[in-house]
Amino acid sequence: MSKAYLSLGSNREPERHLRAAIAALRKHFGEVVLSPVYRTRAVGFDGGDFLNAAAIIDTTLDPFALNDWLHALEDAHGRDRSGPRYGDRTLDIDIVLFDDLVLEGECHLQIPRAELKHAFVLKPLADIAPEVVVPGTTHTLAGLWSVHPDRDAPMPVVTL
Question: Confidence band (pLDDT; 50, 70, 90) for 81?
Fold first, then answer.
């Protein structure tokens, strides 16, 4: 079994899409460790606020098969990949960490994800896995969050 650390986000009917995504993760993978859900501003474009969370799952899938499964889940929720890279989305789920694996550029999969630098990815992960060391570094998620420039910015918690 491998442990995958996921980032989830949505800014189009976000409560509905995140609830459904979490239910699908639980149905397929069993127990899911879930962070609080945070309301955050769009990053990289002008758009509506996002709801963001993190999840930890145990899986027998390799990271490529898991990424395919997550893309199929996004597609089932109307994810449109034809527009700009940064834009509104119904559902976005990324593998941020996968065990202690480091992948770069293999089938467009990067682990750890570069988006870990963003508060909307790092804060939820640090909430549920503070002592996890980011592969290829000596930094824990909690350590990275403690020095993050946005650590004192408000991130309202939302109940789904």
Answer: low
Instruction: Output the domain CATH number for residue 42.
Output: 3.30.70.560
Q: What share of the chain is helix, strand, coil (3-state, %, to 5)?
A: 30, 25, 40
Give the domain range for residue 89: 2-158
Report the pLDDT value the prediction gives residue 82, as an integer from 0 to 100: 67
The amino acid sitting at 95 is I
b/e per residue, 46-83, with b = 16+ CB within 10 A? eeeebbbbbbbbebebebeebbebbeebbeebebeeee
Residues identified as active-site: 79, 89, 92, 94
Residue 43 has pLDDT above 90, yes or no: no
Cα 127 to Cα 9, 13, 46, 48, 105, distances in angstroms: 16, 24, 27, 24, 28
Phi, psi of 2 (to 5 degrees): -110, 155
Q: Rounded to the nearest 5°, which phi and psi values hold at 87?
A: -170, 175
Q: What is the DSSP letter of 27?
A: H
Give me the amino acid identity at 121: V
Q: How many domains does the chain have?
A: 1
| Tens-place pLDDT, residues 82-129 | 666 677 788 999 999 999 999 987 678 999 999 999 999 999 999 999
